[in-house]
Design a protein that fits this description.
252 residues; alpha/beta; two-stranded antiparallel sheet; 40% helix; globular; Xyl_isomerase-like_sf
């Protein structure tokens, strides 16, 4: 299996292309066969399922918000299983739950541990997706992400590589620290200082400052299987999708 075989596309990156059907037409036309839906699309799962089926696509992973997971994790698993999803990733703490320091991240980790047991008890896998706010530091020097993952020791981690860098940490060291728990990563990039301002400073993978020549071997070493292309604010979705595929295809 090559990295290209594991390429997926986070549908949040195409949200500005309307309607949903046009997103799938674009991605399928470029050769994508996997996508990662996000919570906003779960309000109409039948529509999402139709697009997956019509275009012969799979959704091995999905982002599901904490509100839905807290309300009913078992029902969430049932919904996701109907879409063929195998792994649920919680994408972020809700606003207002990100700045409380070590105590807040400890409590969240314990809650995620409980939710994870409910999800895995129903036969799906469960993990966390990071942003930069997980890279604040506890009193003992640990990153909040480490606190979170230690409180939920069986939880997987979908490492967002560019957010790790924006948080001031080393993505290679971080994924190696949690080897065995990192089955998926978000493949995204950061533009050189002052560039891509209208795209919030993000770049297409392979067109920014991340050192993929060093990062990719580390991802392969720890057994990453799913490479999810993401750009938080692309001004040209087709360009981003093409470049992401070209970059991942170049990895050996």
């Amino acid at each position: 299996m090559t990295p290209l075989d594991g390429l997926s596309f986070q549908l949040y990156s195409a949200r500005m292309v309307e309607p949903l059907e046009a997103q799938f037409e674009l991605l399928a036309g470029l050769g994508y066969r996997k996508v990662e839906p996000y919570g906003g699309l779960l309000g109409d799962p039948d529509r999402l399922k139709r697009q997956l089926d019509e275009h012969g696509m799979k959704a091995p992973s999905c982002h599901v918000g904490m509100d839905r997971l807290r309300a009913d994790p078992v029902a969430t698993v049932k919904l996701c299983r109907g879409l063929g999803i195998e792994t649920i990733y919680a994408p972020a703490p809700p606003p207002g739950e990100r700045d409380g320091g070590e105590a807040e991240w400890t409590a969240l980790g314990r809650e995620l541990n409980r939710i994870g047991k409910a999800v895995t008890g129903e036969g799906l896998r469960f993990g966390w997706h990071n942003h930069h706010f997980e890279y604040g530091k506890a009193a003992d020097g640990r990153f909040f992400l480490h606190v979170l993952l230690e409180e939920a020791p069986e939880m997987l981690w979908e490492a967002d590589l560019a957010w790790i860098v924006r948080g001031g940490a080393d993505p290679i060291a971080e994924v190696k620290r949690y080897a065995g728990r990192v089955e998926a990563v978000h493949v995204k990039d950061i533009a050189p200082q002052g560039e891509c301002v209208d795209e919030d400073g993000w770049a297409d993978p392979g067109h920014g400052v991340l050192d993929w020549g060093a990062i990719v071997p580390a991802l392969q070493e720890v057994g990453v299987k799913l490479f999810v292309a993401e750009h938080d604010k692309p001004n040209d979705v087709a360009r981003f999708a093409r470049r992401a595929m070209t970059t991942v295809a170049s990895w050996r």
